[in-house]
Amino acid sequence: MPETEPRLRVLFAIPELDRGGPDAVYFNLLRTLDQDRFEPVLLVTKPTGAYLSELPEHIPVRLAGHGRYPVRSVVHHVRETRPDVVLATLRMSFTCAAARPFFPRHTRLICRVANNVTGELGTLTHRNARAKNALIAAWYRVVVEVADRVIAQSQVMRDDIEHQFGRRVARKTVVLPNPVDADRLLRLSADRASVPQLVSAGRLSYQKGFDRLVHAFVDIRARHPEARLWILGEGEERDALSAQAAEEGVGDAVELLGMVADPAALYRAADLYVCSSRYEGFPNSVAEALAVGTPAVVPSGPAAGEELITPTNGRIVDDPEGPALATAALDVLDHLADFDRTAIAAECRERFSLEAVTRRYEAVIRATAGRPLRPPGPH
């Protein structure tokens, strides 16, 4: 009888496991990874986060040292756990890249880039943070050069990585979308609203472009006076957005709902999800809205609209700074009967389901560790 193949030990490195997009990705991967083939370990810099209490009991959680970049602590944990692969994201990508020379010889490093690099650097330029911009750009270069494999969340991101760092880095970059737990979202979803309802979600920041959405909503409400807009999330632009909505005459119809732990019911209740982001890695909230059957409008290019939107589930906007965002939203609202919500949900499940994306991650981890995928042996 053939021997059972040893499991691959994978150290998932992330600052914390809270409700953010990358946090949800790691949480979903950790609980869906094939336990017969993989032995996951979680390394965080903060012992807090909404997802920590929901992790399966068999997954060990290790706490890295204090500070934003605890290089020495990461080296200690990696040398002690001796993983086959370290899968790092956010600040932990930078930390693990700096620690990489001290890893065991067999340990490989995969870094998941969390955002469109050009877009992130553009935000820093917008804030006039030139020194920080140069530092972040240098750190990104270290990460992608040192990593054995780089994960981009969309083809747009991979193209941007090639533009920023060259073809050699692009050759070791793979595209893996974020998974969507469609079953859970459908359990939490609710019935449709009785009036034209738009919804959007994200940090209230320059990146998410809610100023563009509020401006577009003025034209939408001119056609649909009873329409309402829900914006989910918190951030530094809350007061500015509230003031803008009042100044543009739609303050009574724009609701800034703050953080919503389980937004699926609001996504499902809406007629349309509108993404107004200036750039994205992978717009998780758009995928979640599609998973419950709600059509979406998403900008092209850095916001990665082409990765999710088809003619049957929404509209892509080429110039969201102009009137095109409102025009696309009105086009969907005027043709809602043409959008099959059941079919939209089914297509999203087929492309981005938790199981399908996790299997793709598993294949990349195995390939990086030097173990070709083969059927599991008898137990």
CATH topology of the largest domain: Rossmann fold
Percent strand? 15-25%
- The overall pLDDT average reads 91
How many structural domains?
Answer: 2
Strand order of the largest sheet: 3-2-1-4-5-6-7
Helix and strand run:
EHEEHEHEHHEHHEHEHEHEHEHEEHHH
From the alpha carbons, calculate the radius of gyration and give it in angstroms: 21 Å
Structural summary, described in words:
The protein has 2 domains: 8-180 and 353-369, Rossmann fold (3-Layer(aba) Sandwich); 182-352, Rossmann fold (3-Layer(aba) Sandwich), CATH 3.40.50.2000. The chain is α/β, with parallel strands linked by helices and 379 residues long. It has 15 helices and 13 strands. The chain has a 7-stranded parallel sheet with strand order 3-2-1-4-5-6-7, sandwiched between helices. The longest helix has 17 residues, at 130-146. Strand 1, helix 1 (21-32) and strand 2 form a beta-alpha-beta unit. Helix content is 42%, strand content 16%.
How would you concisely characterize the structure shown here?
This protein is α/β, with parallel strands linked by helices. Helix content is 42%, strand content 16%. It has helices at 21-32, 71-81, 91-99, 117-126, 130-146, 155-165, 167-171, 182-188, 210-223, 238-247, 264-269, 284-291, 324-334, 341-352, 354-369; strands at 8-13, 38-44, 61-63, 85-89, 108-112, 149-152, 173-175, 197-201, 228-232, 254-258, 272-274, 296-299, 314-317.
